[in-house]
Design a protein that fits this description.
about 775 residues; five-stranded antiparallel sheet; globular
Length: about 775
């Protein structure tokens, strides 16, 4: 028999520590590695040659990360023979004891959370970045002229979200503007709203952690959930941003109020109608909190309309719940919150006037009636994929909770008082999760699915804490971990934290240090060149107008020209209902702005559903084609001037163009259908100034297109060099076309005499619905 001594089997804890530690050290060093390509002897033009990076770079990175952990293992084994582990044992114990102190945990976690707030919520709209999203940033820039120049802006403005989100940041920024820096200042306050919302969520987590009655300090658990909430943000849910600011603080205060008494745990307490101990109900604090909730409810409608409705629903549910709670809890909640609602509503009515309050109510009614139809995107099919779970996981969790509650209600023999008291906070959080699902259901794209899952995530945290208290708290307190196990858990946690880019303290500190210089950047440095040019070129003409209007749904233009909208519906995208389109036409007839913006190369359609503006706002579009005429191109931005009369239809004996491509008939509703060809004005030997599309015998104008596509073939065949840019492309608004058999005509427009001459022959097509039937 051999007396050889064998080395013990590898410790999984040690393997984990070595692997993760080596990666934490070497990943930051490996990321910047780039082996120069040198002389490109292959002659291949690719990303490797363009960026001068050798393809072997990635092989080197792989080998470093692959072999570093085993190499470190050899080093540890070598030093282990000289008892380095025993030497470090005391040092590690002291370090572990320090790390477990609450003050240390709070300090480190606080720094990480602050860094995350700065890097993520506070950076939603990077302050110094080029303004590329004229639609969303226009939502908080474009309403300012209305509120600064109109006497009663709420009557003459249909806000998209509410005053607190659409106007307030710009209003504060404009009071501090010093160097034509309104955009950066507005972004600053918008991002502050986002950061404040994150703080509100942390507060809710604090309240939830305190609801379950943990036997030991709840601080480490709370801090851990805050960290993991930041890590999982964007994976299973998304912090709601400034849209949810008011709501999250309302919910936090509500949870705080009902936390004033500890949930009953003994059967005899569930039947009691009195608070068990004065320590469980502090009347002064209860009055303050319930008053704040009541005051906030009318104020919420000034901040954001939909979230105000959500909390109103949660509040009404809590009022019903309070009927099953002890008298002090019930009476204080119902009477003081009602008093707060009356006081707040009265103050708002006095300050704004009842007419503006009625206008706000009418806007809420408008969004309630039409909102889901305007921006609806259907839920995708539920599948067992990571992307799909973002849509169905929240529904599954809520269904499971509701099933459990139903079963427990049956076990309580439908006695509501003990049932409600037992599940008080589950019911409150479930109601919040339920109303928040409207975000996902009304517009089921990925971003809204993230936001709609936020309250379900908070409900899940509460349920996890209940499970922890019931099943894990006592066993974990009795559990004794070895030093390698403690180290492996610590290293794993550090590895997870360092993998979250939002916890980058250095990056956060750099952003803060650059902030003073950033907020002085003038608007001109942040605008895209084409928008800056359009502002400079058109400002003189638009300066004398009392208002401005654009069909592109870009609020940025109202800010750039400092003009209120000529219609209460400044965003055509949200004026899809017939009643709203007719109101826009009435407003344009009343104000008659000389110059408007019709379209550009991005906003000719709605970005998320790709519906043409000529379809979604067909009445407005057709009105403009009749009452306005092409005026000026600035890059792709097509400005139109009001005309004294509609364009006239004329005939010509000369060859003025051709239709090269026509869609196959029949066409379906929503099917992308395009006409292409070329068009000229033979009398002046130049390309047509525009091409129009008409439908029916009455030649109803329904669409317009630019004439600027290169057609050297036309110029060559006809021997007229000026025709080189005579090509055109017309998108057919299929959804707004009349049903059945229709006749389309294309017209060349001459701006000198405001006349239209037909190009080619009429196009007879049949329009079908999407299911293949004639409409």
């Amino acid at each position: 028999m051999s007396d050889r001594k064998f080395t013990p089997s590898p410790s999984l804890a040690v393997v984990l520590i070595i692997t993760l530690t080596s990666w934490m050290i070497f990943v930051p060093l490996v990321n910047p590695i780039a082996i120069p390509l040198g002389n490109n002897t292959t002659g291949v033009i690719s990303q490797a040659s363009i960026e001068n990076i050798s393809p072997y770079t990635d092989y080197l990175k792989y080998l470093i990360l692959l072999f570093t952990p085993p190499l470190l293992t050899l080093i540890v084994w070598k030093f282990g023979k000289i008892s380095l582990g025993e030497y470090l044992h005391s040092v590690i114990n002291i370090t572990a004891k320090t790390l477990s102190q609450n003050w240390f945990l709070a300090t480190v976690t606080g720094i990480l959370l602050l860094a995350w707030v700065i890097n993520i919520p506070f950076n939603q709209f990077p302050i110094t970045s080029l303004l590329r999203d004229s639609f969303h940033e226009g939502e908080f820039l474009g309403f300012w002229p209305n509120f600064s120049q109109l006497e009663k802006p709420f009557i003459n403005t249909v806000l998209i979200h509410g005053y607190g989100m659409d106007v307030f940041p710009t209003e504060v920024a404009m009071r501090l503007i010093s160097n034509d820096n309104g955009i950066v200042l507005t972004r600053l306050f918008v991002n502050l709203q986002n950061a404040l919302t994150a703080v509100g969520y942390f507060w809710i987590l604090w309240e939830i952690t305190g609801l379950v009655g943990l036997k030991k300090s709840k601080l480490p658990i709370f801090l851990l959930f805050c960290l993991f909430a930041c890590i999982f943000d964007g994976i299973f849910f998304k912090f709601d941003g400034r849209r949810g600011t008011w709501f999250v603080f309302q919910l936090a205060i509500t949870l705080r109020y009902f936390r004033l008494f500890i949930p009953w745990e003994k059967p005899e307490d569930l039947k009691s109608n009195h608070v068990r101990d004065n320590r469980h109900f502090h009347s002064r604090q209860a009055i303050i909190l319930s008053l704040l909730v009541g005051l906030s409810i009318p104020g919420g409608f000034l901040y954001v309309y939909d979230r105000a409705i959500y909390f109103l629903a949660v509040y009404l549910i809590t009022c019903i719940i309070s009927l099953f709670l002890p008298s002090p809890i019930r009476k204080t909640w119902l009477t003081v919150t009602s008093t707060g609602v009356v006081v707040s509503f009265t103050a708002i009515a006095i300050f704004l006037g009842l007419d503006q309050v009625n206008a706000i109510a009418s806007q809420i009614a408008y969004w309630g009636k039409y909102g889901r139809y305007i921006s609806f995107i259907p839920l995708p099919p539920f599948q067992m994929t990571f992307i799909s779970q973002k849509f169905w996981l929240s529904i599954l969790i809520q269904a499971g909770v509701l099933t459990y509650l139903t079963w427990d209600l049956i076990s309580h023999k439908f006695q509501l008082k003990p049932f409600v008291r037992k599940h008080l906070f589950t019911l409150i959080l479930l109601s919040a999760a339920g109303v928040y699902m409207r975000i996902t259901l009304d517009r089921s794209d990925l971003g809204h699915a993230y936001h709609g899952a936020m309250m379900t995530a908070l409900l899940s945290v509460y349920l996890l804490l209940l499970a922890y208290r019931r099943y894990l708290e006592n066993p974990l307190h009795k559990l004794t971990l070895t030093l390698p196990q403690k180290l492996s858990i610590g290293v794993l946690l550090i590895f997870i934290l360092t993998s979250e880019s939002g916890f980058n303290v250095l990056e956060a500190s750099q952003k803060l240090s650059r902030l003073p210089a950033a907020i002085s950047i003038p608007d001109a440095e942040l605008l895209k060149p084409d928008y800056l040019e359009a502002k400079n070129v058109m400002s003189a003409e638009i300066a004398n107008q009392s208002c401005f209007f654009n069909v592109t749904s870009e609020g940025l233009w109202y800010y750039l020209y400092n003009k209120p909208s000529c219609s209460k519906y400044s965003y055509v995208l949200y004026a899809k209902p017939t009643v709203a389109q007719n109101r826009v036409i009435e407003d344009l007839e009343t104000t008659q702005p000389p110059i408007i913006l019709l379209t550009n190369d991005v906003w000719f359609q709605n970005p998320w559903d790709e519906v043409l503006k000529a379809d979604s706002a067909s009445l407005i579009y057709q009105y403009i084609l009749q009452q306005y005429r092409p005026h000026k191109f600035v890059q792709s931005h097509w400005f139109w001037r009001r005309s004294d009369m509609p364009p006239t239809f004329a005939t010509t004996n000369q060859f003025n163009g051709a239709i090269d491509v026509i869609p196959e008939s029949p066409i379906r509703v929503g099917q992308p259908s395009v006409l292409t060809g070329w068009g000229v004005i033979p009398e002046t030997r130049k390309p047509a100034d525009a091409v129009y599309l008409s439908v029916g015998e009455n030649n109803q104008l329904i669409a317009v297109g630019e004439v600027n596509i290169p057609r050297w073939d036309v110029a060559s065949v006809l021997g007229i060099r000026e025709y080189a840019q005579s090509g055109w492309r017309l998108r057919i608004p299929t959804a707004s076309l009349p049903s059945g058999e229709i006749s389309l005509k294309v017209w060349a427009y001459n701006s000198e005499n405001h006349q239209l001459t037909q190009i080619g022959e009429a196009i007879d097509i049949i329009k079908l619905s999407q299911d293949g039937a004639r409409t």
